[in-house]
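We include the entry.

. . .
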Amino acid sequence: MDAGSSSSLNCNSTSKCPLQEQFHRRRKTRENLDRFIPNRSAMDFDYAHYMLTEGRKGKENPSVLSPSIEAYLKLLANTFHMNRGRILAFKNKPPTPVELTPREFLSPVRQFKPSKPKRHIPQTPERTLDAPDIIDDYYLNLLDWGSSNILAIGLGSTVHFWDGSNGSTSELVTVDDENGPVTSISWAADGQHIAIGLNNSDVQLWDSTANQLLRTLRGGHQSRVGSLAWNNHILTTGGRDGKIINNDVRVRSHIVETYRGHHQEVCGLKWSASGQQLASGGNDNMLYIWDRSMSSSNSRSQWLHRLEDHTAAVKALAWCPFQSNLLASGGGGNDLCIRFWNTHTGACLNTVDTGSQVCALLWNKKERELLSSHGFSQNQLTLWKYPSMVKITELTGHTSRVLFMAQSPDGCTVVTAAGDETLKFWNVFGTTPEVKNAAPKELFPHFSRIR
């Protein structure tokens, strides 16, 4: 009995009984495993397969299995590839991944943000008017659109008006042959007074509403006055003699400053919006920046910057409406370039080769865009995106170089005049914004009222 007991004890504890040893080791191994990270070296795949397929048949009566259990077992066998088929099969495309978060909840701001509609730019002019006897001269400035919506143009020795509100036309003055023809035109800021430069070096000031000549400025220039620019009560004139003169139209001795730098005709003049800086371009290929703080009535005023980058006459000048120290200038037939300047430092910021003579420049007052008019060989208008200077569109229609451009008071319409004796109106900068009806003013706004 003792021996039997000892033998039995030894078999249970230390003797190698295969079946019990497997069970004991399997139990111990299962206890040491992590249920998420299995130890594959300690697993018996054959036993696992047997238990999943055949082992349960001895415990369950196949005849008693319900259809749902049979379907479950079949699905389980297919899921775990118990048919010993290929584990990876590249027969069909993988299923489309399911989006955990719907797209409408990912970026609600971008989804509901309204996109800005693309502006339509008509490729043909809205209106074309005849301009007989217009002088085909690159160095003159014969077109201007005043703040009162009156367009003025010099045709030969006559100044004509076109009313933008109703389309009516009228004639302001026809100068004598010994004084004419008209060489420059410029409206004052009030839209009522207009300056007219003449071929004989005189400058006339007119009241457009009364059709009355107010005064004639003489003695400043020795030859024709081809460029004009207003700065409040100061009328700046540029002549073929190379001189630039500031005239105070309020006083009898009107010459208050003289700028000397150009050696040939001054064909471009533009005051900055602040009235502190004046840009002048000439037939000597020079561009000057003058500062009023440096002006002196007793001696020749010194320029602020002398810019020599252009290789042809500089007529086209335009101050940027959204950056006070940014100036755009255009060169003539031997230059073909638009250049951008920082007028505080005198640095050239960018140069764009347009491929043709630059006659005039205009900034869009609503967008960062620049419009240029050109001469040979396409006689086109080009709209540029600033500062990338990518071409937005090109407008053609003139058969001669587009010498003059002017902008309507609302900033939408641009009128061009060319040597082909036509005026063309282009809707290049958009339509006039709708003005909402203003609320009626109260008669007694300072008195409280009972609601």
Notes: Residues 1-16, 18-29, 434-451 have pLDDT under 50 and may be disordered.
